Amino acid sequence: MQKLSSEQVAHVARLARLALNETEQERFAVQLGQILAYAEKIRELDLEGVEPTAHVLGLTNVTRRDEVRASLDRDEVLRNGPEVENGYFRVPRVVEEA
Amino acid sequence: MEVENGPGWEIVIGLEIHVELLTRSKVFCSCATGFGGEPNTRVCPVCLGLPGSLPVLNAKALEYAVKTGLALNCEIASFSKFDRKNYFYPDLPKAYQISQYDLPLCRHGYLEIEAGGVRRRIGITRVHLEEETGKSLHAGTSIVDSPFTLLDYNRAGIPLVEIVTEPDIRSPEEARVFLEELKRVVEFAGVSDVKMEEGSLRCDANISVRPRGASRLGTKTEVKNMNSFRAVQRALEYEAARQIATLRAGGRVVQETRHWDDAAGVTRGMRSKEQAQDYRYFPEPDLVPIVLSPEQIEQWRRELPELPAARRERLAREYGLPAYDAAILTASKKLADFFEEAARAFPDPKMVSNWVMGELLRLLKAENKELDQVPLQPSDLVGLLSLVRDGVISGATAKEVFEEMFHTGDPAASIVDRRGLRQISDEGALREIVRRAMAANPDAVQSYRQGKEKALGALVGAVMKETRGKANPQLVNRLLLEALREAKP
Fold first, then answer.
1. What is the tens place of the pLDDT at every residue in B300-310?
2. Is A25 helix (H, G, I), strand (E, B) or coil?
3. Are the CB atoms for B358 and B386 separated by under 8 Å?
4. Rounded distance between C-alpha atoms, residue B308 and residue A72, angstroms
């Protein structure tokens, strides 16, 4: 079974904004490898001419009418924010420029 | 920096345009759309990305996205699906945007434009449907030194189409012309109100340069933060010149995203400390695919209103207008509708066109207003022009009346009556005034007789002064000339 390289684990962790210590990196290298190996099983099948599955339900065209309904109460909405200001959520500055 | 697109260099531009669709509710939930609103009052568990909530596609958003594609001559996919585009940014509550990746609704279209007298066809790679992000506000004095970012999620989940062009555009001017035509097309199609100042149309650009005749494309940069069509042209002019200067000096263009600084008139590279973006698209499991029948697509095609190119052609033909007039009158659907409603009710379409292109556009521009923000109606203009035609008021007076109508929406006739502006066209009365003016200005009469034709102006002025500008000017001229000729010794 193929283990992921530590660079691959670091890359995936960075994309997910996760800080992993060395022990965790090692553990996930094994676990992610197992998951990939499981997905690889599909290669054992002859899939010539089989369309990729877009959705498992087999339903299509589920839509709703363009109608406005009540939104949430703002106090309720902002209750989830660690920091709020004048009706806004407040987060650390995100813009970066050279 | 001067643009250096002399014979030696070719500029290659592709655009990526986002347009908000004009639905009442958001694309995957029932919160209201619309500009403004108190922050975070048009949000619900779906558009806030709360756990356990599920999106359901707005049928109207689907229809408008397909109509956008049809208006841009695209092929419409019989099978289409949504995908998740994963990235972290505070304006994206779910940490992924529902978008379309490999199976967009529309592909392979084009839009014809005319720039610098040359007609060109710009390819449309794709049009897909996705959701808007929230809006970030930067507290503090500027973007750079603000310690916080404030977030309003009212915009999150408004339906958005992304329109991607082929790298077919060959100059910054062509890019601006393309955007202007695209704006008209989506507006005429009735799928968006395309207000760039409110952000319902936004544009990013990819640009590269290469020695003319080269077959390989140069390294491109992506230019962002252009907030007007004019800014797009300026930013691309700057960026093309920068790239050419870099290459001329023996340097190389770095592939990067650059930010347009409108005040400084320059593009600046954004810091790119992260590795190349990795969006890890995968099929959106919360939404099922879309299957469109040829009948459905045809029905939407039939429902499309007349688009700008067709309307320009028809206005020129039906009302006998010059191509120039037709182009200006179709600058927006509202303006074209206004013109046509007036032109149908007045026997001289060219006169209507002159007033719409002249006074109406002048006042709208001076007051920075849209046509639907003023009370003036097409019937008001017809009323005014009828008064001019019947000699009740002069053209100069009509401009005054028009300005009042523009602000109040009162009928021309009542403004004319209230302000006592009816023109004096009574020949007998005017002849008497002309005689008095000549008697009171013997010097002017003398000068005119000695061949100084300019002296006539003083006499016309005297008549106008006595009638407080209400004398019919053509009549005054004729009567004065007659009287001067008669009185000649």
1. 999 999 999 99
2. helix
3. no
4. 41
Total tally of structural domains belonging to chain B: 3
Of the residues B66, B88, B148, the best mutation for testing chain A's interface (the one with the most A CB atoms within 10 Å of its CB) is: B148
Q: Which of B251, B261, B165 is nearest to B209 (CA)?
A: B251
Over residues B230-270, the pLDDT tens digits come to 999 999 999 999 999 999 999 999 998 999 999 999 999 87
Q: Which of A59, A92, A98 lies at the smallest CB-CB distance from B269?
A: A98
B1 within a domain of the structure (yes/no): no
What are the phi and psi torsion angles at A85 (to 5°)? -155, 120
Do residue B323 and residue B448 come from a single domain?
A: no
Contact residues on chain A for B81, CB-CB shorter than 8 A: 54-55
**Residue among B331, B407, B400 nearest B374 (CA):** B407
Distance CA B237, CA B241 (A): 6
Hey, are the CB atoms on A93 and B60 less than 8 Å from each other? no
Q: Could you tell me which residue, A3 or B192, shows the higher pLDDT?
A: B192
In sequence order, the 6+-apart residues with CB closer than 8 A to the CB of A82 are none
Within a domain: B78? yes
Q: Is residue A72 part of a domain?
A: no
Q: Which residue has the higher pLDDT, B464 or B319?
A: B319
Q: Hey, are the CB atoms on A66 and B41 less than 8 Å from each other?
A: no
Q: Do A96 and B79 touch (CB under 8 A)?
A: no
Q: Alpha-carbon torsion B297, B163, B88, A29, what sign? A: positive
B196: closest CA among B156, B232, B150, B151?
B232
Residues spanned by the domain of B224: 9-295
